[in-house]
Model the fold of this input.
Amino acid sequence: MGLGVFFVLKAFANGGASLTGLEAVSNGISSFRKPQARNGRITLVIMCCILAFLVAGTSLLAHWTHAAPFAAGSPTVVSQEVRYVLGAGALGTALFLVVQLATVLILFTGGNTSFNGFPYLASFVAGDSFLPRQLTKRGHRLAFSNGIFVLAGVAIVLIVVFQAQLNALVGLYAIGVFTGFCVAGSGMVKHHWRNRERRWRLGVGVNGFSAVLSFAVVAILLVTKFTEGAWIIAVVAPPMYLGLLRLHRQYACEAEQLETGARAAAEAPVLPRHVVVVMVRRLDHAAARAIQYARTLRADEVRAVHFGRDVDTAAKLEAQWSRLGLWRLPLDLVDCTDRRVDRAALEYLTDITVDGHTECAVLLPRQAVHSRLQRFLHDRTADRIATTVVTVPHLSATIVPFDAAWTDGHKRSTATGEAQASARGTHWKPRVLSTEVDRALARRATDASAIGDLQWRRRAKVAGRIRSLRVETAMSTANLECEITDDTGSLLLVFLGRPSIPGIEPGARLVVDGMMGSWRRRLAILNPDYELVGERQSPGD
Done:
C-alpha cells in the first residue's frame, strides 16, 4: 500500500542522523593550525571515511545477524551484533563488556562535541548580531563560557522533558543539525551565484544538492518523529527565527544611532563652562577620595551635594563640614523628603546644564566590595543614580571607588617596596611556554636584559610581547608608539616618522636593541633595531 516508500525514507533519515557531529569541524575551524582550511578538509575527509566504514559495517552485521531494534531501546543493535560475533563464552562475555564500556565512552565523548562546537557557532552568530553579544565572550580558559552555560541549561531541560529517551533526543538533535546543513548549503549557493568565482558552477551544484538533500532529511524527520517530540521544532522554530531577526534589527539600530554623526560630535567645540558635582552621603574616606579626584579635574566650579533624607544626618554633616574648614568647597544641602535620591539628583543636575553652555561631571563615591557578602551588605545607590542621570545631555557620571584597605598606608608602602625590590632583582624569565612562538622568543632572549633592570642612557637588548599600540590620527605626527612587556615591567618603543610597520601589532613577539632614553616622561627606546619572532596569535591558538 505504498508504506514501503515511507519506511525507506524513514530509514534514510535515521541513517542521516548518524552524520551529526561532522559539523563540529566547521564550527571549530578557527582552532586548527595554519593553513586552517587545508587541515580542516583533511580532518573532515578522515572523519567521513571512518563514519562510512562504521555505518556500513554495522548495517552489514545487522543484515547478517538479523539484529533488530527494540521498542524499549535495549538491547541495542550494536550489543546484539557484538554478542552474536563474540559468543556467550567467558572470553566472549569479557570482550562484550569491554565493547559496551567503549561504547559508553564514545557516547560520552560524542556528547561533548556539542559543548565544543555550539559555543564557537554561537559566537559567530553573535558576532553577526543575531544572538546576544555575551556569547562572544571568552573565559579565562579561552573557552566561550557563556555559550557552554546556555547549552548546559538547554540540555538539562531537554533531558528532563524527554525523560532521557535517546531516540527522541537524537531525532530532535538531527533536525537541528540538518537544518543548519540546509541553511549553510543554500547560503553557499547564493555566494557562488553572486560572486561567479572560478568553478562556481561546480560549487552551485554541490551545495545545491547538499541543501536539497538536507531539506529532505529535515522534512522526513519532522513527519516521522513528530509525535516523539519533533513538534517542538515546528512550534519553537518560527518564533525563534523572528526573535533572531528582531535582535539583529535592534543591534543594527543601536549601531546606527551610535555611529551617525560620531566624528562631528568628537570634533565639536567644547562647552565653555565645566562644573564638577561630588555626591556626599557622609564625610568619610570614600567622599574624601572623590573630592580629591574632583580637585584634579581643573573645573570652573566644584560642588559637594548632600540630599537630605534625614534631618539629623544633614545637620551632622553640615557641622563637620564647617569644623574641618571645608568652606572653600561649597556644600549644597538639598531637601529630599520623599527619599527618592535618584529623582532629586536628576532635578538638581538638570538645572545645572539647562543653559546649554555647561558640561557637568558627577562623581559618585562608592566603597569597593570584594565578596558576595559585602555586595549584599551595601546598597547600590551610586549605580542607580548613575543610570538615571546619564539620560541628561552634557552630563556624565563617574563612580569613584574606594577600598578600605587603602587607609593602611604602612602596608601599602611596604608592599610597594617589596614589589620594586623583587623587580630589580629579577632577570627576564619567560612564563609557561605553551606555543612555538613563545619557545622561539625564549631562544632569542638568552642574552636579553629584563625590562625592570633597564637604566637611562644605557644600551640594552630586551625581548617581550607588544601589549599596546598607539594609533595616530591623520593630523598628528607620523610616529609609531608601542609598549613591549615581559614579566618584570614594560617599555615604550617609538619609531619616528613611521606611522605603521608590518608585523608590529598588539600580541606580536619581538626582540629589540637600542639606547635607553625618555619619551613623554617614560623610559623608551627611539628607533630601535628589532627582530620579529612571531605575529599576533588568535585566542584559540
In short: The chain has a mean pLDDT of 80. The longest helix spans residues 90-127.
